[in-house]
Each structure stands twice: as C-alpha cells, then as structure tokens.
Amino acid sequence: MQFTYSPRSFGFIGILILSNIFGTAQSGQPLPYALSPVYLQYLEDLESQVYELLKNTDANTLFGKGEDAKLKQNVVVRYLGEYEKSVNRTSTTETKYHHEKDFVSSNPILAFQMINRYVKYIKNDALKSVTNVLIGKDILPTEKEVEDAMEALLRLQYIYDFDAHQIANGMLDGTTTSAKLSIRECFELGKFAQDSAYFTLALQWYDVALQKLKTNDESTRAEAAASGLKEHFILNAMRATIDEHNDDYEESIVDGDMYSFSTRIYNTNYSDIAHLTLRKRLMKELAGQVFPDEDPRFIQAVEANMMALCLGHNLQTEKEKAKLKCWLDTKRHPFWTINPLKIEQLHEEPSIIQLYDIFNDKWAEYLKMLSYEDLERAPDIPEATPRTAAYAWFEDDDIPDAPISKMVEFVTGLNVVGSAAAEALQVAAYAFGGHVEPHFDSVPKGPEDPVENPKGDRVTTFLVYLNEVEKGGLTAFPLLGIYIKPVKNSAVLWYTNMKNGDVDERTIHAACPVIAGQKWSKHFIFTVINRN
C-alpha cells in the first residue's frame, strides 16, 4: 500500500483511515495480518512510531519510578535492541527512515521478526500503557499471525529449496539483510515444522539452532543464555521428529510426501541426511514429466513441475518453443488501430497469450487503492483451493473510474459489457510466501456433482498484473511446462474449457510464492450464460 503520510506525521486522519480499514473483518474472517501486504506496510510504519516514542522519551516519564518501572524499562531495552538489530537502525539521534519504504514488510525475514515483536513486546503488559496511545488492541497481530508468518517462511524454503542456515543468517535468494534469526526463532520454526509434519524442514531448523548454540563467541553465549535452550533439549526435539517421521514413513512414501526422507533415518546430523530428502529424488525423477491423471505419479509430477517452474525453468521442448511468436494486432477491435495490441504467444495449444501495456499505471494504482478497505483473508472452506493472499471483490459498476469490462471486450471480442457474462472481479494481494496451489478456474462437473452454476460454466480467464514483483510470484502451468512473469499492466488470456464444454485440465495452474516485495493481480473470469 502506497501511504502518502510520513512515518512521523501519521496524525489523527491517518489513524482514522487505517482504523476503518483494519478495524473490522469482512464476512467474519480474521484480519489478514501476515497475508496482506497492505497490513504489513501499516505495521511497519506503526512500529517506527512505537520505536521513536520508546527511544526518545525519558523512561521515568513513561513508567515512573520503582521496581515495577524497572521491569518495564528492561522490557523496553530488550525491545529496542531486537528492533535495532533486525532493521539495522542504531543511531540514537537520527529519527528519519534510513532505508527505502517497505524495507521491512517486503522482506520475509524482517517481516517475520516484526510480527514476532508485536506479539512478544508491543502487546506485552509492560508496554500496554504506552503503546495503547498509538494502537487499537483489535488491530494487532496475534499468535495466529506469527504462525501464518512461519508457514509462509517455510513455504519459501520448501518451494525454492532455500538453505535454512542461509535464511538464519539473513540471506534469501541472493539478497542479504542485516537481520539474523535468533536461536529461539530457529528453534520455534523447527517446532512449528515438526508439528506440521514438515519433517525435513524441522530437522534443518533444529540443526541450525543447535549449531548456533555451539558457536563459541560472546554474543552467541549471551543469546543462548537468554533463549533458555540447552543442547540436550534440541537433540531430544530432533530425535522426536525422527521417530515421528519413521512411524509415518510407509504412508508418506506411498503418498509421495516431499516433506519426508526417501528412507527411514536415525542420524541427528542433518548434513549427513540432507541428500536423502524425497523432494530431491522426485524433483530429479519427475520434473518435466507428464503422466495420465490415473497414474499414481500424476500428482507428484504436477508438484515437481510446479516447483521447477517457480524456480524459473521452462519445461517446454525446443520444438514447442520454436512455434511461439510475438506480434502487433490491429484487427481485434478498431480501438487498436492507432495503438496496436502487443501480444506474446506463451503456449500454442491450448492457447495462452500475454498482452502488454493494455492498462496504465494510474489505472493500476487506482484499482489497488480501491481494494485496500475490502481486502480479506480467503474463505476457509474445505473445497477451496489452498491459498495465502488477501482478496477484494468488485462488480464492474463498483469501479466507474477504472472499468475493465470494456477493455476486456476490446481484447477478446466477447460481449461482456452490461451482461451477466462475467463473474465478480477479484483483486488479489500477496505478501511474502503468498501463493495459490494448483487449481482450475473452471469447475469440473460430473454425475457426482450435478449442480450447475446458475450463471453458467466458466470458460475464459483474463488475469491482469497490477505491479512488478520483486522476486518470485510467477504463474506456473505444470502440465504445459510454462511459467508467466508478472509484468505490470499486462494481462494473460486463456480458455478454461474445451469446445465440447469439458474443463481443459491442461490449464491447471498455480501462483508461485512471493519471495520479496508484493504481488497484486486482478482476475476476470467469464461464463457461458445458461438460458434455461
């Protein structure tokens, strides 16, 4: 979210606006703290104010005197130390931002630590009397948001095969920050992974915590003492993880669970067993392969292909690539006569094309701004595709200053303006780790699911990218072997159904997790209208 206020001049109006945005949840859903880039940016700006207040105000003024005041002052000292260490902000006099906007909220490691600090310190009873001046209690992160952040960080590690030791040292996909995860944070990531049956990831994080604990320098010794962790405690957690893995081993192998090892394990030294992860084996054997859906390897191959595509590996053959082309189109509609439509063919059959510069920056920013107040967590229903993003829904009439239907009609030739041919427009905002699992945009129908959509069957998807993504966030088609890079103001068009009305299962696709920055997109899905 591109706030226009400065961190130091938030003011009453800013508080009022953000209270309206975040004070209530749509449809009774939890507020999307760790999933929404808008909210993460809000937390980052707000924490800067909290930091400046605690840093620049005399402790006696804040807490008075006495033993209770000393305890509160100690909490403040620990908070300031963790904040400064995380964001590399150490000056005692300079109060301006020393880094670019969204520095914290756009980085998974820094954002995870920020959410942790809110729960650990800013909501701490010792600081409530101070922070309540700035913050309404109903809009602060909870333990649920810490878990969301851990899940997102582990998802990045799993999909992109990041090394836990590098993440713990502030390195992520070639980018290094000042932030380093503490022994306690590494252990908690391991425990969360263990509880989630992410066995390979759990052992990695326990190993990192153990190695940090063994580091013999003054700062690490002090950190180890503060964490309360002992070597035997971490080793016991690793042995418990190994026992749980081995108990579930046969079922995990049958299911192709890539969070498992390819054999039973008995060694707590992770470096000796890292090469045995089932993920490494299946990626080597299945990436680039396509099997019939009745083949037991089908789902595993889809997952392997998705991960390969998210890593930026195009799986098309050279023969398939040679058939692709780019062109300028003036024939789709008279609108394009003077300013030809720029089209790139990404896949021949089924046809998938990307159209460039069909919208402008002003339109994209307006649409994002309009979505801020309505963003909510995706509905948590059993049949829904697993996804981690914040969503807003609009009808075309809701956005008179940024109508999309007319432009879609110019591009596709479909008559959608003023008709019931389009479903509600969906804007999706992804923060770090934000993703969507493989899915179809059209819903398969069969004897077991005879209920029809009263509006008709979904037939076409028009996906608009509203921003450039710093890292990650590709759209992957695992059965077609292609990925699509989000390009601001471009759109991707494909048909979700075949001519006989059946779902074109080749168009199964996924949104790869965002590594850094944020991703904004807009879905526009057409239906064939039932006339019965």
Strand order, biggest sheet? 3-4-5-15-11-18-9-8-6
* Number of separate strands: 18
Question: Any idea what the shape is?
Answer: globular
- What is the averaged pLDDT score? 82
Strand content: 5-15%
Tell me roughly what share of residues is in helical segments: 40-55%
Cofactor: L-ascorbate
Keywords: Dioxygenase, Iron, Metal-binding, Oxidoreductase, Signal, Vitamin C
Signal peptide: 1-27
Protein name: Prolyl 4-hydroxylase alpha subunit domain-containing protein
Describe this structure in words.
With 532 residues, the chain is an alpha+beta fold. The N terminus and C terminus are likely disordered. Its cofactor is L-ascorbate. Keywords: Dioxygenase, Iron, Metal-binding, Oxidoreductase, Signal, Vitamin C.
Q: Secondary structure elements and their pairing?
A:
Layout: H1 11-22, H2 37-56, H3 59-63, H4 67-87, H5 108-122, H6 128-131, H7 143-160, H8 164-168, E1 171-172, E2 175-176, H9 183-195, H10 199-214, H11 218-227, H12 231-247, H13 249-255, H14 270-273, H15 278-286, H16 298-310, H17 318-322, E3 326-329, E4 341-347, E5 352-356, H18 361-371, E6 376-377, E7 387-388, E8 390-394, H19 405-412, E9 425-430, E10 435-439, E11 457-465, E12 471-472, E13 475-477, E14 482-484, E15 491-495, E16 509-511, E17 514-516, E18 519-528
Antiparallel strand pairs: 1-2, 3-4, 4-5, 5-15, 6-8, 7-10, 8-9, 9-18, 10-16, 11-15, 11-18, 12-17, 13-14, 13-16
InterPro entries: P4H_N, P4HA-like, Pro_4_hyd_alph, Pro_4_hyd_alph_FE2OG_OXY, TPR-like_helical_dom_sf
Protein name: Prolyl 4-hydroxylase alpha subunit domain-containing protein
Signal peptide: 1-27
